[in-house]
Amino acid sequence: MKQSGGNLGVAPLMRSVFRIVIAFLFMEHGGQKLLNFPPSPHPMSHLPLLLLAAGVLELCGGFLVLVGVFTRPVAFILACEMAVAYVHQHAPQGPWPIYNMGELALLYGIGFLYLAVAGGGPLSLERLWHRGR
Fold first, then answer.
1. 1-40 pLDDT tens trace
2. Measured CA distances, 58 to 24, 25, 70, 130 (Å)
3. How many folded domains does the chain comprise?
4. Angstrom distance (rounded) from CA 28 to CA 114
5. Residue 82 falls within a domain, yes or no?
6. What is the per-residue pLDDT for 131?
7. What is the pLDDT of residue 41?
8. Helix ranges, 1-91 (H)
9. What is the pLDDT of residues 107-125, one digit of tens each?
10. Does 43 reside within a domain?
11. Largest CA-CA distance found in the chain, in angstroms, rounded
12. Is residue 56 part of a domain?
């Protein structure tokens, strides 16, 4: 379907750029939890099980989304993780994200939900595999 006004060919490419950037930034959170890299100002020598699970999802799931493998299901799982993080960690602090510091969880959540629905765009390993068939 062709729409008038604007170059629609750029939108799928920007979806790939968005996927790569959000996944790379997300992986940093998992890297801090599991590897203390990038170094955290508040490192934890022992992670509770919930934070350990979050770190694995953030690092491994973020990597899968970054390279574009199983993008839709992994992005959906990461969106769910961010919903749990918001409800468990931020919402008890108050109703407004600006006050409960839940903005980042909500932004990651909606970003991953978008990727779960829209897919990862043309720059992905999935796309390369499908072209090879």
1. 455 555 668 999 999 999 999 999 999 999 999 999 999 8
2. 10, 10, 15, 26
3. 1
4. 20
5. yes
6. 80
7. 85
8. 10-35, 49-56, 62-67, 71-85
9. 999 999 999 999 999 999 9
10. yes
11. 56
12. yes
pLDDT of 62-90, one tens digit each? 999 999 999 999 999 999 999 999 999 99
**Structure-token pair, residue 20:** 């790569």
Contact 24, 68 (CB under 8 A): no
pLDDT of residue 1: 43
The answer to whether 79 and 58 have CB atoms below 8 angstroms apart is: no
Say what the pLDDT of residue 8 is: 67
- DSSP three-state, residue 2: coil
**What type of residue sits at position 12?**
P
Give Cβ neighbours of residue 100 (< 8 Å, ≥ 6 apart): 90, 91, 92, 93, 94
For residue 35, the SS3 value is helix
DSSP-derived secondary structure letter, 64: H
Range of the domain at 64: 10-132
Q: Classify residue 35: in a domain, yes or no.
A: yes
CA dihedral (43, 35, 75, 87) in degrees, to 10, reads -20
